[in-house]
Amino acid sequence: xxxxxxxxxxxxxxxxxxxxxxxxxxxxxxRTHATISNSEQATNATNRAEATxxxxxxxxxxxxxxxxxxxxxxxxxxxxxxxxxxIIPPEKRLxxxxxASEWENQETVLKxxxxxxxxLVSRAIDAFQDEGTRNExxxxxxxxxxxxxxxxxxxxxxxxxxxxxxxxxPVLDWARETFGVELKVSDSLFVPTQPPDTLKxxxxxxxxxxxxxxxxxERATYTSKSFLIALxxxxxxxxxxxxxxxxxxxxxxxxxxxxxxxxxxxxxxxDMRRQLGSAACLLANY
Length: 286
Fold this sequence. Notes:
The chain is an alpha+beta fold and about 290 residues long. The chain has helices at about 1-15, 40-50, 95-105, 115-125, 130-145, 160-165, 170-180, 195-205, 210-225, 225-235, 240-245, 250-260, 265-280; strands at about 25, 35, 60-65, 70-75, 75-80, 85-90.
């Protein structure tokens, strides 16, 4: 997926990286996603966008700035909801291209849910440079580990057992072998208590994550409802499709038994893939 996106979007990066535009004062577009810096005339346009959620910019670009890449709307660079410059590291050209593509593909009406890369980059910049936030999120993620979805294995129906064996067991085996930890599973409603050394090992892993890895790990965990599925995605043991299938095991078992609910199951699955895909793409270093 990364290679395909690179081929599609690389020309956008190369074409716009050469441009050099003046830096101007920043004002907010919306506090749910990135903002842009602009003049008084553009401020009025921004106010209209806040009220109407309509696209007001004509051109999206990418320029080199402050040692990285900035995505621009009509030559004005995006800012994060926290007011920081949305500067993407130079090794993450694909990320810059994907953020630019999100804004280019906003048509008449602005759709914040269609900006997963922008929101994720903003999260990495705004939240995970702060040690207090890192500690808070780390603790929340470890709570997901203690009650991880893939620790609970049903012994019926047969279709669910088959899907658990196909998608959850490989993740558990990978984690045990890669990190040398004991992971307990349960076939009842009781929560299996994980050994202290296991929890400590995964805490150490999170301690060593960069801001970008933490942002990706947070989104992947909350999307998949599984610490271990998210970790396997972040560490490239699973690709996006495999992670989505693993996270969708229980729903897929219901679909196989009773059929798919149109515009519900399929929409949820594709949204999950979009969110997990954004987390995987955030870590691409090319």
